[in-house]
Structure formats: structure tokens, C-alpha cells
Amino acid sequence: MDAAAIGARLASSAVVPLVRKLFTADGPGAGLVDRPVKISGLVTFSGEKRSLGEKELQKITAELVRRAVVSAGAHERPVSADEEEAVAIALAHTVQCLGNLEMDDVQAVQLGHKALAKRLRDTDPRTTYHLSDDAARLHDVLLEVACLHILHFFTQRSTFVARTLVSHSSQLADSIARIDLLLERTPSVLAEDTIFEARYAEHIIDKHGTLTIYGIDFTNSPDEWPLDTAYLSLELGMDKRGRQAPIRAEYVLAGRDRVLLRGVAGSGKTTLVQWLAVTTARQGAGNGRHLAPLSGRVPFVLALRTLTHLWHDLPTPGRFLAAVRSPLADAQPRGWTDRVLRAGRGLLLVDGVDEVPEKVRDRTKVWLRDLISAYPDNLWLITSRPSAVRDRWLEAQGFTELSLAPMSRGDVTHFIRRWHTAARSGDDAERQLLDTYEHSLTAAVRTKGDLSRLATNPLMCGLICALHRDRRGYLPRARKDLYDAALSMLLSRRDIERAMSAIDGIELTEEPKTQLLQRLAYKFLLNGKSELERTQAERIIAQTLPSVSAAVSQGTAQEIFRHLLLRSGVLREPVPGTIDFIHRTFQDYLGAKAAVEEGDLALLVLRAADSQWEDVIRMAIAHARPSERAELLAELIARGDTANTPRRRTQLHLLAMASLEHATQLAPSIRTEVERRASALIPPKGVSEARDLAQVGPVVLELLPGPDGLEPEAASLTVQTAMLIGGDAAIPILARYANCPDPGVRTQLAIAWHHFDTDQYAEDVISQMTGDDIYFDVVTLAELGALQNLGGRARLRIGEGLGSNNLLAGIVHRKLTHLWLQSDQSVTWYWLAAFSQLHTLILDHSPTPVDLSSLAAHPTLRTIGIHPDQILVDAGALHERFEVIDASKVNGAT
């Protein structure tokens, strides 16, 4: 766009706030004086009343340039992005000449805004000599725009000026009014986009800024809690080589543009999606370099469960908001989504591939592939349960596959603390009681193996906390019992606690509620959906109602359904007219109960190969009677034996093995057959098999071999399996690999430390790991102290939470030879001289320049690892003094 047109596009609302900053708020006798006032006495960047320095003035002109570029539109940019700063500096220099003018306000208004701008330019004509022609034109136009508003400001601040120059004052006001009216009628595309994006960001923050914390919905407790309070930072699991250093889940997009994230039910996938969306929408400063990729992005939350009505016509970008039923769908500017994605500013959060019916997953993949091909420069995060899609499902599109790790002991303790903090009320007695519950539950999770095996993800931890409070310290010992108790709490005790029984004229006990809900859940499963239209749900209740005598006389199907929706605590209506369960786990559990009660064992076996039914079948094993359980497992084995692909055979045999956890009573011969087939899958042959084995649970630990006779890859996968299973029972298995000759396996053991009790793991595993060929990851002061007690280690990789003072105090100086740090760990590096044996320093990438000149005097340092694109200060001197290697090619065992 031509620079002159830019000036015509700048509304007074964009310029006036900046102009006002150039002048004192109240001039001498403003509005009352009977004579002119020198301009030099009014400006805020010179004279006695100076309040703006050169930097502050440049910030004002830089903002004026930015608003001018915004008003032009993305495709009509007046100057290139790298020229904007030069224009702002030149404009600041020219505006600063106002303080040197021998002119008063009346003379300035008489002169007119164009002549005033020329007078300022002529003060130092060289100001724009270094600018390109386009940049110089933009400087001149913005100066004239500023002068127009400066003169109008003079007429507004002094009645004397306005009275003396009535004609000029009217002309100035009329010019500005005409520009604003024109802009109001013909706003620029980018201005429209900017206004809408601000509104859209507020909507995202409001919509996704709260979470349900299960079980904190008793008397005087809200159903939802702020995301900032409820969000728990979890860890990502290892990469396919098992050598990924632990990182927090919210940093999943640091250094990665496309990620497929796997996680079991309740592991926090959707919560992470919400957190990323809200964090991006807030565009807050100070998020740190790991969250820098989110800056300037526009989040699109595409929950696949909400698109079930669109499988034959998955949405194009222009229909994203309509597809997720956003109330802002009709307000978005025409072509806005396309412009965002073409500019590479999108953050696409596609949640729940596992909730897509298996028969249409290929269609979903094509939809994703086409979107990525059309808009390649955006950030993508796609979530799924582990087995819903095969390994490398989107590898051709450049996706990295990661997984949410099971909660570590520290995570569980932190969650328990957060839960009880959120649940505390203002009542002193209640607060004291919850303090007691928090301490007793924390101790129980640490000491009781069966309980710690259940507390592996946020959903299970939330249920455990709720039940512990509800039952005053008593907790179920098995997963089925935990869900039984949780549903009992939600379906009956919840309203009793709230004194809300029969509030709508309907009073149902727990059993009829369960019968109705499980029939509804089973229909969800049979239809392959996670959502149903409300009218369809009401029809299902109408069909079921005649067989539930306790409910049939209390109201119509619509009334009974409304009661279940409002009072069960299990159903919700995310958007008007659409129904789903508050969590998929409750749907699976209730649907499995209905399938068993209806005798549909053959159907369960038939659906066993569908990943959407895996948890249903496990729960069905738990609900079934011993004879039904034996029949179901025998059929799973037989179907696995005759499967037409190795993957399908492995899937069915592992499903049978995983179901043993729920088989409290089972014929010994069936159990033996299940275990025999599972033993053929151990050790795992790949990462997906290791992940599948880990889902089976602690029973697999008894089948895992030791390191003797295993190839390095098999040993690595075995260690990864044990780490993913977790719990105290896994530590002895991992300890057997402490002296494995393969450094990659020992690197995994060093990384796994964060998933276990710090001191116990250090004593049983780390203490046995001799040798100086691997890096030990240290992310907490407790781990640093534990290594110090063990005499230190030669190679350390330090997390971002530890400062130089911590390292100087906690590292055994004489032992350290290799150190791996964040590039922004320190401003200067003189403190490294304390480590007299240090000869190799590896630095992780940082977007900010790094000055390593202070390392020149280090007596023993010889090698420095830097990422190729790292910005270095005085890089030539660095290469002369040290051997510089590519840090991106360094791993934990090198």
C-alpha cells in the first residue's frame, strides 16, 4: 500500500493516545491563558518538565509505525519488517526537534500540519538519508499524521488557541472526523482481523480457562476451578530411542512444529490442550523460551468428539469455528482463518483421534494431511490414546510421536496438595480436617503399593482424593472398586451432601440411575460416538424406562433424562442439544456393565480389535461372573491365535493379559494360557510393544527378563517398559540393568530417576551405575544432593530450575568433567572456573545471543557444544580458543 494511503487509514483512536504522551498533561494555565505558549515548554522530552527519554520516545514512534503497518494489512505492507525499526528511530529523531522550535502553539496552528512537518524535516534533513525510498515516504507521511493531531491537541488544550484560530481549529477537527468516518465505513482487513482476534482470544480464555476437578463438588463447592489453579504440569515420556531428557508436557512444542501425543484415558491430554490454548490466547510476556513458539499464534481447539456429526464433510478452515459450535462463528471476518493459517500463525490442537470411529480414521488422516499440505507453517498437536493409531501414523507429514508419562511420585504428591488446596473452604474445622486428609493420603500413596499403582494419572488421582475425603480415609483397593465407589459418590452421595434430594420432584436411588445411565452409555458405544443429540438420548431413556420400575412412575422420559443430566454428575451438555459423559472412562465403565448384563459377550469379542473398545473389555472382565470371565478370555485368546496379522495377534493377546488385573476370580488354566501367550511378547520388539506392555500393568514386571543375553535394543525396550509401569515394584527390575554395558540403556536408567522416589532410586539404582560415559539428568535440588552423597558423577545435564549457586554448592567439583546446561543458564560463565577438571561444556539452544567470552580464561575447558543456529557473541574468537561441536548431535550417552 502507498504510504499516503497508510496515513489515510490511521484512525484518531490509534494516534491520539501516542500524541498525548509527547506533551505535558497540564500546561501552565491550560484553558485559561490569554497568550501563546512556547512548544518547547509543552513537550515531555526536553526542558525542565522532561519525563520521556530517547528510548521512551522511540517506543512511542515504534508503536505508531506498528499501528500504521497493521492498518495497511498483511499484503499491503508499506516497508519490509526489517525496516520498521529504522523508520521508528528516524521518526523519533524528527519529532524530537519539536523541543528546539522557536515557535509557540498559535504560530504552529497558523502554519498548518503539512508546513509544520516540513519545518521539522528541514531541521535535520539527513535524518532519512539512510532509509529506502519507501521507508522515507512512510516517515514523512507518519510525521504529517502526527502533526495533524499535534495541532488539534493544541486547540483542545487551550481555549485561547481555539478562540484565536477558530477557522483553523474547525478545519483540523473536521479533517480528523472525516478520516475516522471513512475508516469506520471501510476498515482494513487486518484491522478487522485484529479486533476479532482480541475477541476470539477472550472467548478461548473464558471457554477453556476452567477445569472440573472430580469430587470437589460438595456443599458450597463449585463444579469448576480456574485452569491456573487446577493445571498440573506432567512429563513427556521417552522418544523412540528412549534417550529423551525429561521435559514438562507444556513444552511439547518447543523445537517441534508437529507432534502426535499419546496418553491413556485420564492422563491429561485434553487438559494440556486447554492449557496450551489459554496460554496462547493470553499472549503473556515472561513465559520463557520454551513457550516462545506460542507467541503471536491463534489457537484452534478441534475436539474430534464434537465433529462426529461431520464425518462425511470434515470442516475446512473457514468452518472450524462453526464445526466446534463456537458462538463467534458468524462474527469472524471473511477469510480470517485462511489468512491466519497462510501466515503460519495458527496453533492447531486436534484432540482425541481415539474418539473417531475406527472406520473413518483413514478419512480423518486424509483431512489432516490435506490441511497440513495447504498450510505447512503452523504448529500442530494431535492427541490420541496409545493404541488408537499405529506407530508413525503421521510420520510422512513430519510428526514427532511423544507420550504422556505416568505421574511420578512427585507429581502425585503435588496433585494431592493442589486438590486439597482447591477443596478447602473458609470454615476452620473443614480446613483442619482437609489438612489431615491431605497428609494421610500422601503417606498412604507412598507406602501402599496397590494405591500407588492406581494413582498414575490425573483422573485416577482426582477420584482417589475425592473418595478419600468422602469416605473419611477409606479407599478401595482395585480399579473396579474405585469406579464403583466414584459412581456411588456422584450418583447418590453428591446430592445428599448438597441437601438437594428431590429438588426437581424426582427422587431416584443409585440403582435405577445406574441402570438408565449404563443403557445410555452402551448406545454411545454401539453407535461409535462420544456425543449424541439430546433428542436421541431422550429416545434411549424412553425405550429403557419401562424396564426400570423405580423410575417409570416419576416422570416422562424427557423429565427423567433432565434429572440425570442435572443431578447425576456423570452427564453434561457441552453445547445446547448435544450430550456426552463428563469423561470417556465413565462411559466405558457403564457401557461394559450393560454389555455383560445383556449377555453380549460375543459382541465384545467381535469388537476387541477396535481400540475404542479396549477399556470396555477390561471393565467387562471386571463386571463378569467367573464363568463369563473365563469364556470371554478364552475367546480373546482364540481370536488372537487366528489373527491374520502379527499386530492384531499381539493386540488381542496383550488385551487378554491386561484384563487379568480385573479378574479377581478365574480358572487357573485360563490364567496360564493368557500368561503363556503374553510371555512370547516379552521382551518387547519395539516402542509400541513396550507401551502396550506397560498398559497391562505391574503383572508384566514378573515376566520381564534381566540383561543377560539381551541385545542392546531389547534391553533398552525392557527398561523402558519397566519405567512406564512405574511404582516401587519396578525399581528392582531396573536395578538389574545398572551395570549394563550399553551406555544407551544406562542413560535410560538415569532419565527414569524422575519417575521414582529420589532417595530410594538413588540408593538402589544410581549408586550401582559406575562409569563416566553417560550424562545424569538433574532437575531438582534433591537429586543434586543425592548425587553429592554418592560422591558425584563426571557428566551432568542440568535442568532449567537450578541456578549457578545451586550448582557450585551441590556438584562435587573434582569429579565433574562434562557439563550440559541451558544456554540462558547464566549471563557470565566465570563461575565455571571452580570446576578444575571440566573439559567439555554442552549448551542447549536459546533464541537469545550467548556471550561465552568469559570462558576464555578457563584452565581446562577444551570443547564446547553449540547448536548450529545459536547466535554467538564474537563467534570467531570462540572457534580459535575451543573445539566447537554440534550440540544437536550430542545425546545422553556419548
Short description:
Helices cover 49% and strands 8% of the residues.
Keywords:
single chain, 894 residues, alpha/beta, five-stranded parallel beta sheet, 38 helices, 18 strands
Can you give a write-up of this model?
The chain has 38 helices and 18 strands. The protein is α/β, with parallel strands linked by helices and 894 residues long. The strands form 5 sheets. A 6-stranded parallel β-sheet has the order 11-12-13-14-16-18. Strands 4-5-6-3-7 form a 5-stranded parallel β-sheet. Helix 16 packs antiparallel against helix 17. The radius of gyration is 33 Å and the shape is globular. It starts with a helix and ends in an 8-residue tail after the last strand.
Number of distinct helices:
38
Q: List segments where confidence is low: pLDDT < 50 over at least 5 consecutive residues.
A: none
Give a short account of the largest sheet.
6 strands, parallel
Overall strand count: 18
What is the radius of gyration? 33 Å
Shape: globular
State the helicity in percent bands: 40-55%
Helix-strand category: alpha/beta
What's the multimeric state?
Answer: single chain
Strand content: 5-15%
- The first-to-last residue Cα distance is 55 Å
Overall residue-averaged pLDDT value: 81
Strand order in the largest sheet: 11-12-13-14-16-18
What is this structure's SSE topology?
Layout: H1 3-9, H2 12-20, H3 54-72, H4 84-96, H5 105-111, H6 113-123, H7 133-157, H8 159-164, H9 166-185, H10 189-208, E1 210-211, E2 225-226, H11 227-230, E3 258-262, H12 269-282, E4 298-303, H13 320-323, H14 336-342, E5 346-351, H15 361-374, E6 379-384, E7 400-403, H16 409-423, H17 428-447, H18 449-454, H19 458-470, H20 479-497, H21 510-526, E8 532-533, H22 534-544, H23 549-552, H24 557-567, E9 571-575, E10 578-581, H25 584-597, H26 601-606, H27 614-623, H28 626-641, H29 646-659, H30 668-679, H31 687-696, H32 712-725, H33 730-735, H34 743-752, H35 758-764, E11 776-778, H36 781-789, E12 795-798, H37 804-810, E13 818-822, E14 840-844, E15 850-851, E16 863-866, E17 872-873, H38 875-881, E18 883-886
Parallel strand pairs: 3-6, 3-7, 4-5, 5-6, 11-12, 12-13, 13-14, 14-16, 15-17, 16-18
Antiparallel strand pairs: 1-2, 8-10, 9-10
Helix pairs in contact: 1-3, 1-7, 2-7, 3-4, 4-7, 5-7, 6-7, 7-9, 10-12, 16-17, 16-19, 19-20, 21-22, 21-25, 22-24, 25-27, 27-28, 27-29, 28-29, 28-30, 29-30, 29-31, 31-32, 32-34
